[in-house]
Design goal:
13 strands, 17 helices, single chain, Spore Coat Polysaccharide Biosynthesis Protein SpsA, Chain A, eight-stranded mixed β-sheet, alpha/beta, globular, five-stranded mixed β-sheet
């Protein structure tokens, strides 16, 4: 008899993180699940096989690819071992909370959704690289009304919202960011099978979480979001996305590791501009829409505005002056090809967003000064009458379980 949930962890060289993830799973309140850890190691000393063997989880399958795989290939490789009615994927920095599967199961029973979504709580270590030590636990605020266990949403409309890019990825609220992503929820095995039958794989280059979301939302008919945060997302300095958002050399290295860097770079929304995160994500939307005839909205000018802001990030670390000049020239030349209407819209949007950022910066600085002038007693009074606090200090990451999820 199949299990309800298959929890899949594709990983490489993060045995300590896998051990933490398995420790969280040992505290699960819901028991009808299996675990698949696909250990794509290169260095045997960094394998997580021992951590899997030592875990007190009888429902764990440890698998290892026969040859070294790219990240996307490893995500696809692991799917064949899943036997559950619903499939969840996690990076090794995502730790499943004890209530999550119970709440997801209730949502499935009530809505028969193809996709179940939950948002992420976050854990910020006080000092890196002490990833699991002292830190701040921030509880999420999903877009679900109090008193309800879940809310249904239209996966295809959600995909078009993302494609229109009315706000940048960093400005999305948690629900908008998570909806449709298999890393923030579960897909029915039937949905996975439909995707594989049409597209060959569930995950594609460039980004496995975005490509599966695009395909999943295109082919799903029903979806629901749970009312509570489902995972603790550990914020580290190790994320490919986080590091490559400001480092052109790291993003280029990641593309080469996928094995098809030249093809991807040539087919970006702004061809050749490999340094911008929004350009990489836009690639996945455009590539899959063209390849499989998908139907969703895509606003090129909105994406181009965010790509420009990526290039101009204050904290960007260029690998060389020549690369910076090359990237800026590519962007300038692409913008010069816009017709008058699109060019005016692009420039107007950039200007409006710059004004809004400056206003927000001044407001934040003003509020900081006001707070510094207030007596401590007034600050404490304001805290007592404010909404229930969402941030908590923890001695270690396991305090999240011991104090808030018993």
């Amino acid at each position: 008899m199949p299990v309800r949930f298959s929890l899949v962890y594709p990983t490489r060289h993060r045995p300590a993180f896998v051990a933490q993830a398995l420790g969280f799973l040992e505290r699960q309140q819901y028991k009808d699940f299996e675990i698949i850890v696909s250990d794509n190691f290169i260095d045997p000393t960094l394998s997580c096989e021992k951590q899997c063997r030592d875990a007190s989880l009888t429902n764990l399958k440890y698998v290892r690819p026969l040859a070294q795989l790219s990240m996307v290939e490893n995500w696809n490789y692991a799917l064949q071992f899943a036997t559950g009615d619903y499939v969840c994927y996690f990076t090794d920095k995502m730790f499943l909370l004890p209530h999550t599967l119970s709440l997801a199961s209730l949502s499935i029973e009530a809505s028969q959704s193809d996709i179940v979504t939950w948002v992420d709580d976050e854990y910020y270590p006080t000092e890196l690289p002490n990833y699991f030590g002292e830190g701040t636990y921030t509880k999420a605020a999903p877009s679900v009304l109090n008193g309800t266990d879940f809310v249904e949403y239209d996966p295809r409309e959600e995909l078009s919202k993302k494609g229109r890019a009315d706000v940048s990825r960093s400005e999305q609220d948690k629900s908008s960011y998570a909806r449709g992503k298999i890393c923030f929820g579960a897909y029915s095995i039937e949905l996975c099978q439909r995707i594989v039958a049409k597209c060959g794989n569930l995950f594609h280059n460039l980004s496995p979480d975005y490509t599966s979301m695009i395909l999943g939302c295109s082919m799903a008919t029903t979806a629901a979001e749970s009312s509570l945060g489902g995972i603790v997302h550990l914020q580290t300095d190790l994320s490919n996305g986080g590091k490559s958002s400001t480092r052109d050399d790291l993003l280029l290295t990641f593309l080469h590791e996928l094995g098809c860097a030249e093809e991807i770079i040539a087919n970006l929304l702004v061809p050749g501009l490999y340094c911008a995160g929004h350009n990489s994500v836009a690639h996945d939307y455009l590539a899959l829409r063209a390849r499989y005839g998908l139907d969703f909205a895509f606003d090129r000018i909105n994406w181009l505005v965010y790509i420009t802001e990526d290039v101009d990030l204050d904290r960007r670390e260029w690998s060389s002056l020549s690369i910076e000049k090359q990237m800026r020239t590519i962007l300038r030349d692409y913008v010069s090809t816009l017709d008058q209407h699109d060019r005016e819209r692009y420039e107007e949007s950039l200007e409006q967003r710059a004004v809004a950022r400056n206003t927000l910066r001044r407001r934040t600085e003003f509020n900081r000064k006001i707070r510094s002038m207030l007596p401590d007693v007034l600050i404490e009074s304001a805290r007592r009458i404010s909404r229930r606090p969402r941030q908590f200090h923890c001695g270690t990451i396991t305090d999240v379980l011991d104090r808030f999820h018993k």
